[in-house]
Design goal:
two-stranded antiparallel ribbon; 6 helices; globular; single chain
């Protein structure tokens, strides 16, 4: 039988396969297909219930973060932000502390750049190439030449509560506090309007634990390093 008369063939498309029902659902059934999707961003640790705590640091609007804590936590945040596709520009007076991270991040791609204090050039951030500027400039960081903007967030690391900390905390959308002295905890509690239990906890936090604060929310987060992060940065620590 010729191809033009064989009912099981179609010119140019081969034989017709077996017939199966279409994969369709009714409008009323669509709700059953909903998937639980968490916040988009960087996983910075787990909360008190062991659930992932996610920081959406790449945003279309300016976003400033102040972290009063240790270098270790700032570097884990930088590594994980780079893993989400962000470019990391580190402004620091101790480049030697960041060199290993800059060389290891990105799988050989230059995604972490190091700059002297006050020497960060324009980064050209965009939706397709977001930037996180990490300012590791000591107790009194000067006003930065590169500021937060669309798709460019700025994370300022302070080792302790310094005279410039209140100003930075007040203008930041997110503030992270690690272990501080009782006197510093009392002052921070006043600035952030913390509850008494939260304020008291600040002087007893374990290494790797951070109280992250926004205008409306407070959350204690434990940052747990991966094996690769531990090999590069060592174990969690508050002091450097």
């Amino acid at each position: 039988m010729s191809a033009t008369t064989n009912p099981r063939s179609r010119l140019g498309f081969g034989l017709i396969g077996p017939r199966r029902g279409r994969h369709t659902v009714s409008f009323d059934e669509l709700g059953s297909l909903g998937l639980p999707v968490g916040d988009d961003g960087t996983v910075i640790g787990v909360d008190a219930e062991g659930r992932p705590a996610v920081l959406g640091i790449n945003r279309p609007t300016p976003y400033e973060v102040t972290l009063i804590g240790g270098l270790w936590t700032a570097q884990v945040l930088a590594l994980r932000s780079a893993a989400t596709g962000a470019r990391i520009a580190v402004e620091t007076g101790r480049a030697q502390a960041w060199t290993g991270l800059a060389q290891a991040a990105g799988g050989g791609q230059p995604c972490v750049s190091l700059h002297d204090v006050g020497r960060v050039p324009p980064q050209g951030a965009s939706a397709g190439s977001p930037v996180v500027v990490v300012r590791d400039c000591g107790m009194r960081p000067p006003r930065g030449r590169v500021v937060a903007g669309p798709w460019q967030s700025v994370v300022t690391l302070l080792p302790y509560l310094s005279p410039v900390a209140p100003r930075l905390m007040e203008k930041s959308a997110l503030v992270g506090i690690q272990r501080v002295s009782p006197d510093e905890a009392a002052r921070i509690g006043q600035i952030l309007n913390l509850q008494a239990a939260e304020t008291q906890a600040l002087s007893t936090l374990a290494d790797g634990v951070t109280l992250w604060c926004t205008d409306r929310d407070r959350q204690f987060v434990m940052t747990q390093a991966t094996d690769a992060e531990t090999g590069l940065l060592g174990g969690a620590r508050r002091m450097d």
